[in-house]
Design goal:
Layout (H helix, E strand, L loop, with lengths): L1 E6 L4 E8 L2 E9 L9 H23 L8 E7 L3 H18 L3 E5 H12 L6 E5 L4 E7 L2 E7 L5 H12 L6 H13 L11 E2 L2 E2 L2 H13 L4 H27 L3 E5 L6 H13 L3 E3 L3 H4 L4 H14 L24
Parallel strand pairs: 1-4, 4-5, 6-11, 11-12
Antiparallel strand pairs: 1-2, 2-3, 6-7, 7-8, 9-10
Helix pairs in contact: 1-2, 3-10, 4-6, 5-7, 7-8
This protein binds adenosine-5'-triphosphate (ATP) and fe (ii) ion.
Length: 330
């Protein structure tokens, strides 16, 4: 079956075409501003403007005609209400027009499902580290459960806030990674920063405040700051991931989210796993960041599990939690 996936939980709007277990097309565009701030209504306007072009592009890339589509899947939760509505409305219109079934997908679960498809991981703990989200998720007793999460901001938003204070532009993650690598090559000393882990939860607000003071003091180089931030923040993430693995008795990690593109984070997860005789996996960057391929793939699984939703009932849920969703297709 050919599946069209539509992603619109936040600033990325994407469309993908899947056939069975193969990605035929995965197209996306992201709303951006110089400073990185985003007004939900403006992002929705951007998505409305480009959505038909992105879907057309996905069909062209996949060399399929819209009439070949057998299922339409869209991200129904969680995210910004304004942008979710654009994707849901488009998906509903297409399903009605093409007379094809429609399913809604939880975005966080989709990150985990694409990780399982694209890597050898079968029953992993997922470290989902993106802009807005930081969660440690694993499947247990019929649901994906959140074992740990951020108590304040997502790790990507934290990195972007730190990067903005350092004048690195947006998104700051890749620039921080480059500067940290330079810092490591220069053998800079690790700075002391607040390490905030509570059980399996983490928080970043205190560290961000401290960093802003340190930046204002002009005593530290960008390289030393970035190196120290990465070492300490990633150690926090790896610690809570390891605790969840021990708790659930799982032997695999799969990474998800834009921050997981960071090679140092991938390396630290791998060495933690090696010590536990476990394995850490990361799909390609294209499938780590927000993408519609994961929505198409998860949509197909949801369809096989519970069938389609009626277009008039195909809503959105900006606040749905990962463990609100019953999963029988594991
Ligand atoms: P979500 O809606 O799932 O929270 P998102 O909209 O924030 O996702 P993503 O593409 O998953 O989008 O993640 C973007 C974040 O990833 C940004 O905060 C960015 O700075 C960060 N990032 C990207 N590349 C890197 C990198 N190499 N190292 C660290 N952080 C990175
Ligand atoms: Fe995401």
């Amino acid at each position: 079956m050919i599946v069209l996936g539509i992603e619109s939980t936040a600033h990325t709007f994407g469309a993908a075409i899947f056939k069975e277990e193969r990605v035929l097309a995965n197209v996306k565009t992201a709303f951006s501003t110089k400073t990185g701030g985003m007004v939900p209504a403006r992002v929705a306007d951007h998505h409305i403007e480009i959505c038909d072009e992105i879907v057309r592009q996905a069909c062209d890339d996949a060399r399929v005609s819209p009439k070949d589509i057998g299922l339409v899947a869209y991200s129904r939760s969680p995210g910004l209400g304004h942008t979710l509505r654009v994707g849901a409305t488009l998906a509903r219109s297409l399903a009605l027009l093409l007379k094809k079934p429609l399913v809604g997908v939880n975005h966080c679960i989709a990150h985990l499902e694409i990780g399982r498809l694209m890597t050898p991981a079968e029953d992993p703990v997922m470290l989902y580290a993106s802009g807005a989200n930081t969660q440690v998720v694993a499947y247990e007793a019929g649901r994906y459960r959140i074992f740990g999460e951020t108590l304040d901001i997502g790790v990507g938003n934290f990195l972007d806030g730190f990067g903005r204070a350092l004048g690195l532009g947006f998104p700051a993650g890749p620039a921080i990674e480059r500067l940290a690598k330079k810092g490591a090559a220069q053998n800079v000393a690790l700075l002391e920063l607040p390490y905030s882990v509570k059980g399996m939860d983490v928080s970043f607000g205190g560290m961000l405040t401290k960093l802003k003071t340190m930046i204002r003091s002009k005593k530290y180089s960008k390289e030393q700051l970035c190196f120290s931030v990465q070492e300490i923040v990633f150690a926090m993430l790896v610690e809570v991931t390891e605790r969840a693995m021990a708790h659930c008795d799982k032997k695999e990690v799969v990474l998800g989210g834009g921050v997981a593109c960071n090679k140092r984070l991938q390396e630290m997860c791998s060495s933690m796993c090696k010590e536990r005789k476990a394995k850490s996996h990361a799909p390609r960057n294209e499938f780590l960041v927000d993408n519609a391929a994961m929505i198409a793939w998860t949509g197909l699984r949801v369809y096989h599990q519970s069938g389609a939703v009626k277009p008039e009932q195909a809503g959105i849920d900006p606040y749905e939690r990962t463990d609100d969703v019953e999963v029988n297709h594991y």
